[in-house]
Amino acid sequence: MNNRERTHAILSYKEYDKMPVVHFGFWKETHEKWFEEGFISEEEFNMREPEREKHITEKLGFDFGWGGTFGAHSGLLPAFEEKIIEELPDGSEKVRNSSGVIVLRNPDANSIPAEFDHHLKDRKSWEEHFLPRLQFEEKRVDYKLMAKKKSESETAENPVIMGVGSMIGVIRNWLGVEGLSYLWADDPELFDEIINTCAELNYKCIEKVLSCGIKIDFANFWEDICFKNGPLVAPSVFREKSGPHYKKLTTLLNKHGIKFISVDCDGCIDSLISTWLENGVNTMFPIEVGTWNASIKPWREKYGREIRGVGGMNKCVFAYDRNAIDAEIERLKPLVALGAYIPCPDHRIPPDAKWDNVRYYCDRMRETF
Are residues 48 and 95 in the same domain? Predict the structure, then answer.
């Protein structure tokens, strides 16, 4: 049984021989720190990103990384050209990024940048700068890459995961949280048009990729529309505006034999889960533990066996010691026993993670599960 077969078995509540040990990637600064500490060779550190991550994955003892997806380009095409708007005395810069957002870029900071302004404000800016960039063109699909993926998918030992876009998250990026909230109230027709345009583009992109004959195991949406206290969009608005589009896209995916459909959304997602489940999304990822202690357990109790999960392992313990890791694995045991759940660090492994702790985690996971 390979990792591809194992993940299918686990998420189908079937018997399997062992739990794959998976991760969701690493911060760039984590690689840099481990290189400086001598755990990564100069040759490995200088590899291109996919190859470097593959080597580090194997050295640590993970089976594979869950975060790698492929698909068509469903974003702004072309993206906005990055442009420095203003240089500030402290060395930071106000920059227009590829989404048309004016952000504060600080060379010494690695966190999400502060936002000053957004190019998308109203119908004029939408029709002039965004709508033309959201039309389907054949160049959105890299057919050479798709042919390669088709060939690889025939014998792949790890799951083949297709990225299938976003309903609200990418729009939030363009408008900002405040802009998204006001637009729904101030210009509901434009709000609908933006969502409908993005959803239709996603549909065409998915159709084209599926027509390439790739053997796909999982489809993954991206949203990131929640924070520690709940969603950044009203759940009723999300259900009304996004639900029908999710249903249309998941129906298309199901027709092509893809039965596991996940959503990557950070934060406290509880009040949005019912909309996803009702519209064909059945796997939650990465189940951020956070200060609100997210877990698949209460969701399974509420929604039953239809809800599945990947994630929910508190990555923060990698900065502590082996006792903390042992305690975290003990916490995961009853969750794994529920079935259709694969533990995975609940986001990319950060630079405070100790190499030996991550190695120990992989060894203990393999012994335990």
Answer: no
What tokens does 340 get?
A: 């259709």
Confidence check: pLDDT of 112 > 90: no
The DSSP 8-state label assigned to residue 215 in this structure reads -
Domain encompassing residue 257:
3-75+121-368
Q: Residue 175: what residue type?
A: L
Q: State the Cα–Cα distance between residues 283 and 221, nearest whole angstrom.
A: 10
Sheet holding 83-87, edge to edge: 83-87, 93-96, 101-105, 115-118
- The residue count of the chain comes to 369
Write out the two tokens for 260: 């596991």
H/E stretch holding 180: helix 169-186
State the total domains in the chain: 2
- State the average pLDDT for the chain: 95
Considering the domain architecture, whether residues 320 and 204 belong to the same structural domain is answered as yes
What span, in angstroms and rounded, lies between the C-alpha atoms of 242 and 168?
7
* 181 and 245 inside one domain: yes
Query: Look-up: residue for tokens 């599960």?
Result: 369
Spatial separation of the C-alpha atoms in residues 34 and 39, rounded to whole Å: 5
List, in order, residues 6 or more apart from 314 with CB less than 8 Å away: 289, 328, 346
The encoded tokens of residue 20 equal 């794959």
Q: Which two tokens stand for residue 5?
A: 């077969």
Are 52 and 44 contacting, i.e. CB atoms less than 8 angstroms apart? Answer: yes
Band of pLDDT at residue 335, cut at 50, 70 and 90: very high
Residue 110 sits in the same domain as residue 127: no
Task: Kindly tell me the burial class for residue 211, based on how many C-beta atoms sit within 10 Å of its own C-beta (0-12, 13-18, 19 or more).
Answer: exposed
Q: How far apart are CA 257 and CA 185, in angstroms?
A: 39
Residues 110 and 256 in one domain: no
Q: At what angle do helices 322-337 and 296-303 cross, to 10 degrees?
A: 10
The pLDDT tens digits of the residues spanning 207-235 come to 999 999 999 999 999 999 999 999 999 99
Q: Who contacts 240 (Cβ-Cβ below 8 Å, separation ≥6)? A: none
SS3 for 341?
A: strand
